Amino acid sequence: MICNIKRITAVDSKIDSIFSELSFLRTEYPEFYSWFYDKVVPELSNGSREVFIAQTPLSFGKINGVLVLKNTNSEKKICTLYVDKESRLNGIGQRFIDIAFNELDTDKPLITVSDNRISDFSRLLKKNNFEIVDSLSNYYSENHVEYTFNGHLYLPENVKYA
Length: 162
Fold this sequence. Notes:
Blueprint: E1 4-8, H1 15-22, H2 32-46, E2 49-55, E3 65-71, E4 76-83, H3 92-104, E5 110-114, H4 118-127, E6 132-137, E7 145-149
Parallel strand pairs: 4-5
Antiparallel strand pairs: 1-2, 2-3, 3-4, 5-7, 6-7
């Protein structure tokens, strides 16, 4: 599948479309709206966040995948890696991993995966030598476990959704 990857800026007209494509995550991550609009979008301007989208030439504007990275001195993290169901198994996820390795300048970025998505990611994580480090109960969402790979999550007690 031919797929174009595009870097998104804070003023890009696709910001709301990206949120819409990812809005299903609000059920798993209750603070998702706030995280996206209060952290990700503003931090695109200072370079500590990066967003990429995948689109096929025939998708007519539809977003086929989204990658959100946090790139700071203290944290190199894949925050969101999403490929829509119709586009999976076509190499988009691997292209996103390759972009993450390059942009974050590491082959061991932090990523977390919820228990109800771990089977979706297991092949990609194994192929790229991600190592499970921790499992956190009720971290982002009640009654769910968040698995961390290649590092630990450290947040102040009153902060949710880094």
